[in-house]
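Extended Data, panel c. Modelled sequence:
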Amino acid sequence: MRPRTLDELVGQQHLLTQGSPLRRLVEGDQPMSLLLWGPPGTGKTTIASIVSHQTDRVFVEVSAVAAGVKEVRAAIDAARARLVATGQETVLFVDEVHRFTKAQQDTLLPGVENRWVTLVAATTENPFFSVISPLLSRSLLLTLEPLTDDDVRGVLRAALADPRGLDGAVEIDEDALDHLVRLAGGDARRSLTYLEAAAGAAMASTGQTGGPTRSPRDGKIRIDLATTEVAVDRAAVRYDRQGDQHYDVISAFIKSIRGSDADAALHYLARMVEAGEDPRFIARRLVILASEDIGLADPTALTTAVAAAQAVQLIGLPEARLNLAQATIALAVAPKSNAVIRAIDAAAADVASGKIGPVPAHLRDSHYGGSKKLGHGKGYRYAHDEAYGVAEQQYAPDVVADAAYYQPTSLGAEAAVRERWERIRRIVRGG
């Protein structure tokens, strides 16, 4: 089912517009080396194959997992000899180029510089860290985006009908198709592997008790949800990313962390990850919770949550589930305080009700000409010149001069914050 033309390529519409570098390379037959960066199953190998077949170039594949300097040089030498003898160009596809050492990547440079080969290198790692600069500067970097659920669903439907696939021999129930889409996680290759396994299981067990049924309309074998669960050995998680389950599970996840039950929180995290929930959505909720439910009771909570969110962006699933799990456990066992959200909500309520007085004159900007004539900055006490680095003076407008928005708890590290804040407040307000 590998696409043979750019028009058959699923997803990556940002690379397929008229006049794009990829179309110029394929349809204009222009010599150009590409560096393809993207998650697994998004079409990196397919693009290399299309470049080769649509431009009548010879396609040579080298895997960085198995090949060394000797194999790379041999492939380039053969391409050079072919170009001299017949004029036929070669597409050299290097899969997982980030696994090559610097010396191995250096061997690619002569072939690219002299255009003995059209290099198409694929990587799942950030090329700015994993590919040497000379090779990066001589190649056009194309970033492939993860396939959407609709993209993967389209791949599966095409495979069901296409003569190169199942050629209409089987049908699939919608819930079974949705299950395969979720399990694929945006990987088209994985989705086809799962579909093939499910179709094989359905064909093998047709007619057996409890096995897949035949459509009464046309006698075709039907793949149901139970068959896909057995074939792929993964139970379908009842979860709708746009429905009630999405909101119910994330609500239970947050409330379990707030309630300090790490085990329950991990259960709901696993349900979301297994069902294909966007890990960035989970990470964002952890960042919010770190301030809303923990705050200064554990000042490291926000750092932990932000680090997990950055890790999700950097490495993605499935590995990022470890970072999400670590953050989930850390936030669940951390001491809890909602003082931060109560403080900002109380301040916002006063502002919303109209308690917005003028800024005290001694705090106003006094750096522009004429400001001192207006009394700006007069009487301001520089905190660093005062004892303990705290100055007694009014900071808030008169209308909220006595407001006490932040009310620290005595939980965790906030107990020390509470003690210090009470002393500071007394000094500032002359108490």
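The mean pLDDT is 83. This feature is highlighted in the accompanying rendering.
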